[in-house]
């Protein structure tokens, strides 16, 4: 019996709608597993007792560092092995996580589980980003990244709410973490048996370029981090974006309840931020295809700064709910647009590695943000920590405004 050869690769969302939709679903499962992560401070406090802010946020720092390293590895391995093996490897690393959380006797187990979860998130999410950029081609990258990131972060919000409900009704161990086991089993099965590799699509696009570019991984790292004004400016913006997300993730729920909000109110504010972030990317991704990338990134960083300043200087459910809406909208402007801009600038032959380097810096922001916020909050209080990071976020937006060049003409 002869095996049918795979169809010749074609670029564009319409030509690849089946595989693209499948990858959107897989990335939603990546986000759903991350959604459980968003409630681990509540799990740890209720199960193991409260800790100083710095210690309590250590698990976020470990997650951020392991995810950052896995992002970098994912870019390199995607060019060396292909995209699909990296995606599968990411889900293999996730397999022990639910059991570790179910059996966890102390914070040390949570931190160890987060290390593995960070590797899963870095490998699997990076692989889906690179594969969608490969499939979409140059004209609709903003839409492709908007759909990718929207699927992931809407799933974060929905899974966070689902995990909180299960934990409140049935308990954390084992019931709440069985959801994560189901996510992993489904995603691993889809990745092994249904997803197809997209390396040939990148090679097809590379062949259409007038010049070939062969760069070492060290050269890609230097260009993305320092020497290319556009790539380096969006890399620092990504780091600062996740720096403030690390603060929001770790400190705001505690800040809300300490200032008189009920758990229900705090949970609503905490969930509306990633929900607006996720849903908003359905609009901001294609918007960047029409209006260009640079202005959306600058506006998004400044919107985040204003929202954080409102958290630090104002009080009450109504104001904080509005600030969470603005923070989600600002993040939605930034997240898919930066990825699309990297796809615009990086040559297909080293694009996966450029995405990996950017995501290394971006997710290192989790660790920097968690530790910085924890140290500032322990020393000066939570409002000061939030205010300091609001100023840093505004400065990051100004760096993009001054250094980044526009990468996508609306006429293209």
From TrEMBL:
Q: How does it sit in the membrane?
A: Multi-pass membrane protein
Q: Which CDD domains match?
A: MFS_MdtG_SLC18_like
- Residue span(s) of domain Major facilitator superfamily (MFS) profile: 11-408
Compartment(s) = Cell membrane
Where does the source fall among the domains of life?
Answer: Bacteria
Transmembrane annotation, as ranges? 12-33, 53-74, 86-103, 109-130, 150-170, 176-195, 296-314, 320-345, 382-402
Name of the protein described by the UniProt record:
MFS transporter
Q: Which organism is it from?
A: Salininema proteolyticum
